[in-house]
From TrEMBL, chain A:
The keyword Electron transport applies. InterPro entries: DHS-like_NAD/FAD-binding_dom (IPR029035), ETF_a/b_N (IPR014730), ETF_a/FixB (IPR001308), ETF_asu_C (IPR014731), Rossmann-like_a/b/a_fold (IPR014729). Residues 1-38 are annotated as: Disordered. Keywords: Electron transport, Transport. Pfam families: ETF, ETF_alpha. It comes from Ancylobacter oerskovii. Coiled coil: none annotated. Residues 91-270 form the Electron transfer flavoprotein alpha/beta-subunit N-terminal domain. The keyword Cell inner membrane does not apply. Belongs to the ETF alpha-subunit/FixB family. This is Electron transfer flavoprotein subunit alpha/FixB family protein.
Automatic annotation (TrEMBL), chain B:
The chain crosses the membrane at residues 6-26, 69-89, 95-114, 134-154, 160-180. This is (Fe-S)-binding protein. It comes from the Bacteria. Gene3D superfamilies: Alpha-helical ferredoxin. It holds the Pfam family Fer4_8. Keywords: 4Fe-4S, Iron, Iron-sulfur, Membrane, Metal-binding, Oxidoreductase, Transmembrane, Transmembrane helix. Residues 231-261, 303-334 form the 4Fe-4S ferredoxin-type domain.
From TrEMBL, chain C:
The keyword Transport applies. The lineage of its organism: Bacteria, Pseudomonadati, Pseudomonadota, Alphaproteobacteria, Hyphomicrobiales. This is Electron transfer flavoprotein subunit beta. Pfam families: ETF (PF01012). It comes from the Bacteria. Coiled coil: none annotated. InterPro entries: ETF_a/b_N, Rossmann-like_a/b/a_fold. Residues 6-192 form the Electron transfer flavoprotein alpha/beta-subunit N-terminal domain. It comes from Ancylobacter oerskovii.
Length: 396, 634, 256
């Protein structure tokens, strides 16, 4: 298989900056194909720990995701759709796509599939259960819609097994998420295919995965069936692909598993979630006096309510709502702190939160320092304004 | 036949009745397991144990001490003299009855003091019920007997002597009736408890605070039913006089957690009786409902039993109750025995304790952290490993506090001080396992024994003169509890070592800046190990204005951090560290000096108007740094 | 009703000492909530870790002895067929080894039983198992399946019981030879683990084109912004915008 031929001139033209005078090119923009150009200085800057005089780098990724150059779609020349007409092989992808929208892990999965396909002139084929938006931009060449009637994963696995047999793809990639991971294992068990579970790096030649409690790294050429761990591959950043819909392969699925009587999603209210599982937590501290209002705001934002130790000690919020070293250590992606100055024990509880928003009257509070957005104001007055704004939007 | 000789006969009759009741009481202890008791030595030691050890505790309340001396002394002396009246040569002797009259007068004064304390209003710590009737019976017996004695001395005419006899008989009979299940039980059980105490070492000048190892080969681990207690422990529970001193001292009770040591001992005293008398003292705060059934073979702990599990898990094992108990009852031993059964047989531990216990077992560290990460706090400081040196003078035991930022600062200061003083020190590094304190207090003796044996094997491979630690919990375990597992070490707390270095002049200290400071005694240093002087000497060397909290030294109040209480996290109305911090603030001190990672963490967790929490090592390092002129070589 | 909990030769993730996997212990706790008759099943050479599971509430452990490196699947399937349990519970991942989480699926396939993944709660009525599956971000899904069935347990399930040495001592281990099933040596090369950096294009990469544009035009993304004394309305607007840029709040209705 030969690689797609690159035209360096065309690639450079695509980066020409508009304007008269001598020609200038954007050098930090990612190339339209092939590998991303890395900017070591920028990567180092992203790892730098703020607030210390001497240089400290955090390589564990706790400080926040590695900020690689973002794609400036406007600066790149008008997107031309890439078409792979006669693929040498297929790389199939089964995204989770909850609600028909690609999740970040799905985009990373398509990016990985792109890498595997582009290594030898292959095409990326998405097996979708239901309509999914934006597949072309994410790097899909073909789309096969599979019957999405049943939410039963064993029926879906049976459909995938048929596709696997009919299409004979070189690889089939699934996300190592709750849904994708389950589906991949069902498929592996059903077909007897070897499963490379939770790949943390994936190229056509080599895939790696952790084993034995992350003491061992297993590595080898990726087999047909691979699941990809989150944040292990960059999403596709090049030109969009055609995402042509093709007919589903023929084949009769076995009857659905008779043992399964029903599967239904349970309604879970954000304020009934255990704090440890919540994704978005709004938390009240000493600066809050009106707890009815606070709870109303939590409901309006769809956030799980938490509180500082002081508030829980005072009995204003239940003990289960306490955030911090002696309460719950959060796994939430966003933490919204209202009137919390940020005692060290409290900050330990939010250490793993990626984003922090703080409203506090004290500019020098530790929570303000930790926050991505800090509002120096009385939280008690910001709360009604937030509720009013959310209500007004709802009525629009 | 006069009233006096009739009184003598009545007293003899009462004594016989007393003996019958005493046998009945003693037979109830028989359900307990056998215990090895040195009877002769114990009985012979009763007077000394009573006059020295018991009196030492009782005398902390001078009113109670006088009251008891008068009432008990008068009772025994008066009754004995009255019985002597039956001996023919003395019968009718005026001198004898004059002496008896004086004795009964003294006793009457004591009985009056008993009443004065309870009437018109009874203090909250004292029990009601039969206890409230006690002064009436005492005054009746003493007053009646006094009348009889006066009758015999003065030959009063009329029925006064006979009236006295009737009143004395009624009072005396009432008192005897209070022996089996009333206040008078303490006299009999208390005396026997002094003779057959499960920790005789307490009276021989030992601290005797190490937990007694559980027999891990026993068919049942810990105590499930009253019959699992040794008989002399049951005797100890019966010795309780319900004075409520433990209740006043208990930090969990003060914080409104469902523990009241007095009520607990009463529950245990009732646990091996089928129909225990009703309890008339203050209850467990926020008492959880229990079925309240008792019996020698009935389970003690459980919602369907006598004592709610939250009660035993509220204890911080601070020993304040034991320190205050005039009857020498060992509350903490009982609680740990009950916990042992819950943990090792039922796995019924509080939710928060599950992870620390599992990690202690599977990672040998209650936080589940890598043992090698224990030395991470010392980044940049010289921290030689004993594995590389082979031997050293002082082996620094870091403890689990080393993983925490707060105690890490303390340890950095301590290591810096050792370096400046030129001490030959080293650490075990990745070979240091948890000492097992947390597991043991939470009743997991099996995990503790595994950790102890592993640590002792490690320590046995190296040569060192003594172990230094900044963690009083580790100090107590290494010094007092490892010997039972074959590890004998000289263990020194950093307060003692720094005091020694400052006294030798190996650490030059500058006068510290002005500021009031108070010192919070860690329970495991002060009460458990009696070390209350060295930290104060050390602080005084810093030239600070040191003030004492009302509760200090061996009677200090717990920070709430011991015995696994922070992980058990039984809800109360207040938090123990908040109470303690308020006491520190009440002295006007700007700084609370601490000497324990638990105390530092608990007191630093207090919010609002607080005093600054500094470890002794940090204060000393500041003084040492102030003593070095700017720019001078260190 | 009879339940069987699959155990692995687990190792503590930090210390590396034999320790049962957390979700396997939670599986024991879930099973004990359903029935008294709970046994453990382990196939492999060394049952050190599986034996410790006895202390967490198992009365009985069935150990199928296998040489090192053999496939446990045939032994497990045979043992399950022999014991004929109504319910088999497994952890989400083994406590050691390759940790692919595949064995329960292979067993379910071999036995022809339905499998419910990631359960956090179980009830049984009239031979029908009602299992609640944990999904990301606190979502829950209810499955109703006919017994016999196989479930894997999610870490969000109720906490496991602590270790009680008394139970470990009284627990009974039944030792029997397993079915030898040598596997050809794993094709995968093994090396000490090396953590890799997480690769994320930008916080807004998964969002719509307009949001990506916004992220691209902002110099350093919305990081470390401080607003001093704004009006409550300004503050509210800034907060909502920020939360939407992070993707934790749904876009405002009518301006998608």
């Amino acid at each position: 298989m030969s690689r797609t031929r690159r035209d360096p001139r065309e690639e450079r033209e695509a980066r020409r900056l508009a304007g008269s005078g001598r020609p200038r090119w954007r050098l930090d923009a990612p190339p339209t194909s092939g590998r991303l150009r890395r900017d070591p200085r920028r990567e180092i800057d992203a790892l730098r720990v703020a607030g210390t005089t001497r240089l400290r780098l955090d390589r564990t990724g706790r400080a926040g995701p590695l900020a690689l150059p973002t794609i400036d779609t406007a600066a790149v020349a008008a997107p031309t759709i890439r078409i792979v007409d006669d693929p040498a092989y297929l790389v199939t992808v089964v995204p989770d796509a909850p609600g028909g929208r690609l999740a970040p892990l799905d985009r990373q999965l398509l990016g990985a599939a792109r890498t595997l396909a582009d290594a030898g002139g292959g095409a990326v084929l998405v097996l979708s259960f239901g309509q999914i938006d934006g597949l072309g931009a994410a790097g899909a060449d073909r789309i096969v819609a599979l019957d999405a009637e049943s939410g039963d994963p064993s029926a879906r696995a049976a459909a995938l097994a048929i596709a696997l047999a009919a299409l004979q793809p070189r690889h089939m990639l699934l996300p190592e998420s709750a849904g994708g991971g389950d589906l991949a294992r069902r498929l592996a068990a059903k077909t007897g295919e070897a499963l490379f579970a939770g790949a943390e790096s994936l190229t056509a030649r080599l895939a790696t995965r952790p084993a034995a409690n992350r003491r061992i790294e297993q590595r080898g050429a990726p087999p047909r069936l691979v699941t990809l761990a989150p944040d292990a591959h960059l999403p596709h950043a090049g030109a969009p692909h055609e995402a042509r819909a093709i007919a589903a392969p023929e084949g009769r699925a076995d009857a659905p598993h008779t043992g399964i009587l029903s599967i239904e999603d349970l309604p879970v209210a954000a304020d009934a979630l255990p704090l440890a599982e919540a994704d978005f937590v709004i938390s009240a501290g000493n600066g809050i006096t009106d707890f009815e209002l606070f709870r109303a705001l939590a409901r309006a934002l769809g956030a799980t309510p938490g509180a500082s130790r002081m508030v829980c000690d005072a009995g204003l919020m239940p003990r289960a709502a306490q955030v911090g070293a002696s309460g719950t250590v959060l796994e939430a992606s966003c933490y919204f702190a209202l009137g919390i100055s940020g005692a060290p024990q409290h900050l330990q509880g939010v250490a793993r939160c990626e984003h922090v928003v703080a409203v506090n009257t004290d500019l020098h509070a530790a929570m303000v320092e930790r926050a991505g957005l800090a509002i120096i104001a009385d939280a008690q007055q910001v709360m009604p304004a937030l509720i009013a704004l959310l209500t007004a939007e709802g009525e629009e | 036949m006069n009233a006096a000789s009739a009184l003598s006969l009545v007293i003899v009759a009462l004594a016989i009745l007393l003996a019958v009741e005493a046998v009945r009481v003693a037979r109830r202890w028989h359900v307990g397991r056998p215990a090895s008791v040195d009877w002769w030595a114990g009985l012979a030691a009763i007077p000394k144990r009573y006059l020295v050890d018991v009196h030492h505790v009782v005398a902390r309340d001078p009113y109670a001490a006088r009251m008891h001396a008068l009432a008990a002394g008068g009772l025994l002396a008066g009754s004995a003299l009255a019985v002597l009246g039956l001996v023919p040569p003395l019968a009718g002797s005026r001198w004898l009855w004059a002496l008896a009259a004086i004795a009964f007068l003294v006793a009457l004064a004591g009985g009056g003091m008993v009443g004065r304390r309870r009437y018109p209003t009874r203090p909250a710590r004292l029990s009601g019920g039969a206890f409230q009737r006690l002064p009436l019976l005492l005054v009746g017996y003493f007053g009646g007997a006094l009348l009889v004695a006066l009758d015999a001395v003065l030959d009063l005419t009329g029925p006064l002597g006979w009236l006295g006899l009737v009143v004395a008989s009624l009072g005396g009979f009432g008192l005897v009736r209070l022996l089996a299940d009333g206040p008078m039980r303490h006299a009999f059980a208390g005396a026997l408890h002094l003779a057959a105490h499960p920790r005789p070492g307490r009276f021989e000048g030992e601290r005797a605070t190490a937990l007694i190892p559980a027999d891990l080969d026993a068919p049942r681990l810990g105590v499930a039913v009253p019959a699992d207690f040794a008989w002399n422990r049951l005797l100890g529970f019966d010795a309780c006089i319900q004075c409520g001193r433990c209740e006043v001292a208990c930090p969990a009770f003060a914080a409104g957690q469902p523990l009241n040591p007095k009520r607990l001992i009463q529950d245990l005293a009732g646990s091996f009786k089928d129909a225990p008398p009703a309890y008339r003292g203050s209850d467990y705060p926020q008492a959880r409902p229990v079925a309240g059934v008792s019996g020698p073979e009935r389970p003690i702990v459980g919602a369907g039993a006598l004592i709610h599990p939250d009660t035993i898990w509220s204890c911080t094992t601070c020993r304040a109750c034991v320190e205050e108990c005039p009857m020498m009852i060992e509350h903490v031993d009982a609680i740990v025995d009950l916990r042992r059964f819950q943990t090792m047989e039922l796995a019924a531990v509080p939710a928060g304790a599950i992870a620390p216990l599992s990690e202690s077992r599977y990672a040998e560290e209650p936080g589940g952290r890598a043992l090698a990460a224990r030395t991470d706090f010392a980044a940049g400081l010289p921290l030689p490993l004993i594995a590389e040196k082979g031997s050293c003078d002082v082996l620094l035991w870091l403890g689990s506090g080393a993983y925490e930022l707060r105690h890490g600062r303390t340890l950095r200061a301590l290591v810096e001080l050792l370096r400046r003083a030129g001490i030959d020190y080293a650490v075990l590094g990745p070979e240091e396992r948890d000492c097992g304190d947390l597991a043991r207090r939470l009743g997991d003796e099996a995990t503790f024994a595994d950790l102890a044996r592993a640590n002792i094997a490690t320590l046995g491979r190296y040569r060192f003169n003594r172990i230094l630690t900044a963690d009083p919990h580790a100090l107590h375990v290494l010094r007092n509890e490892y010997p039972a597992f074959g590890g004998h070490y000289e263990v020194v707390h950093h307060s003692a070592l720094l005091d020694e270095l400052a006294a030798d002049g190996r650490l030059a200290l500058a006068a510290a800046p002005d500021g009031r400071l108070t010192y919070h005694d860690p329970c495991y240093l002060g009460r458990y190990n009696g070390e209350t002087d060295a930290p104060r000497r050390l602080l005084d060397r810093l030239g600070l204005e040191r003030v004492e909290m009302e509760r200090h030294g061996k009677r200090s109040m717990c920070c709430g951090g011991g015995g696994g209480a922070p992980v058990s996290d039984i809800a109360g109305e207040r938090r123990i560290p908040d109470i303690r911090m308020a006491q520190a603030r009440a002295t006007g001190a700007k700084t609370v000096a601490v000497a324990c990672p638990q105390c530092a963490a608990m007191l630093e967790g207090v919010t609002g108007d607080v005093a600054e929490v500094r470890d002794l090592a940090e204060l000393v390092l500041a003084a040492v740094e102030a003593a070095v002129p700017q720019g001078a070589p260190r | 009703m009879k339940a069987l909990v699959l155990l692995s030769d687990g190792r503590h993730p930090v210390s590396g000492r034999p320790a049962p996997a957390g979700t396997e212990l939670q599986a024991i706790a879930l099973a004990r909530g359903l029935t008294e008759e709970v046994a453990g099943l382990y196939a492999g050479p060394d049952a050190a870790a599986a034996r410790t599971a006895l202390g967490h509430g198992l009365a009985r452990l069935e150990h199928r002895r296998l040489p090192e490196g053999d496939d446990p699947l045939p032994s497990l399937a045979a043992a399950i067929a022999a014991a004929a349990p109504d319910l088999v519970l497994a952890g989400r991942r083994a406590g050691a080894g390759a940790q692919t989480g595949l064995v329960p699926y292979q067993l379910a396939e071999a036995l022809g039983w339905p499998l419910v993944p990631d359960v956090v709660a179980l009830t049984v009525a009239d031979g029908v198992l009602e299992a609640v599956q944990a999904l990301p971000k606190g979502a829950r899904r209810r499955w109703r399946v006919k017994l016999p069935a196989l479930v894997t347990v999610h870490p969000a399930a109720p906490v496991a019981a602590s270790f009680a040495i008394g139970m470990a001592r009284s627990g009974h281990v039944e030792d029997a030879p397993g079915i030898d099933a040598p596997q050809d040596g794993t094709a995968l090369e093994e090396r000490p683990y090396r953590p890799r950096p997480r690769l994320i294009a930008s916080a807004a990469a998964g969002a719509s084109a307009a949001e990506r544009l916004k992220a691209a035009t902002q110099s350093a993304g919305p990081g470390g912004r401080v607003m001093v004394d704004p009006t409550p309305e300004e503050a509210a607007r800034a907060i909502l915008e920020h939360l939407r840029a992070l993707g934790v709040l749904k876009p405002a209705p009518g301006r998608d």
